[in-house]
Amino acid sequence: MRAVAKAQPNIAIIKYWGKRDSNRNLPAVGSLSITLSELFTEMDVEIDEALKDDLLIVNGQDGDGMLARVSSCLDNIAGHDRPAARVISKSNFPIAAGLASSASAFAALVVAADAAFGQALNRERQASLAGRSSGSAARSLLGGFVELENHADDIVVKTLLNAEEWPLKVVLAITAPGPKAVSSGDAMEISRKTSPFYDRWVEQQAADLTEARAAVTNRDLSKLASVAEHNCLKMHSVMWGSRPPMIYWNSATIACMQSIRDLQSQGLGVFFTIDAGPQVKAICTAEHEQTVRETLTATAGVVEVMVSGLGAGAKLVTA
Ligand code: PMV
Fold it and tell me: I need a labelling partner for 319 at 20 to 30 A (CA). Which of 64, 89, 197, 296 fits?
């Protein structure tokens, strides 16, 4: 009747941007990500027959803004005639700011709700249901390097390498901690409908995925860096070309990219990626983590820097 689960966000190296089917939230493209170890969301789901409606608390505050998405995720797991639940979510990092908090939140929610409602779903089904709520959440069911495959009628994830097989580090430079103005779900629909670059983006994704998959399998950081930065900037070009345009960056975002370019020209193994927010994620070898951290901390406009290794998929903490 009550279960707690914990999940880490993931950072896409090859991005998901665009839906094939917005009712079922099926992505138009495959994607490839790394699951983090240090950032997390913990979800506590308790079935309470005395409650009339679901109740959501997010980091100690009323979570009404997210309640509809949470309730519909619970409906997908346990059916519409299920009893109401009290859901308490806690994250140790800024939420709704382009740090993939919806990924860790919905991955943890599915695992906790599955146990609380006694559904005994397998991991594939859990990933598919998490993806219905947030496309990227499906990837946080698994650890390490994860591919979300491009299937026409379901959300399917698989592990390419475990975290310890290529223990890269991620340095996250926070340039503005507040919530974003347009959710990624809404923004990608605007891109699909209006961006002249959208079709080419979708068309080229398979080639980017093939290149990235090979780079991951061969643990080749410079090949991964090249395709990852290309894919990230291409996704943002799709957004910039949308009407209205979606520009999530600020001046510090660009300053961080420049800092990373400078480190690359000094021969350091590091590359950047940016999601639907102004934060910059630098992915680097463990050997260069300290220099990358110090450089981004000293970059103009950076308000906070967090460091994470790669971690495991969502798991039940108590049942
Ligand atoms: O899962 P959503 O709806 O929050 O979309 C995530 C979109 C990006 O973070 C920009 C890219 C990705 O693949 O995670």
Answer: 64
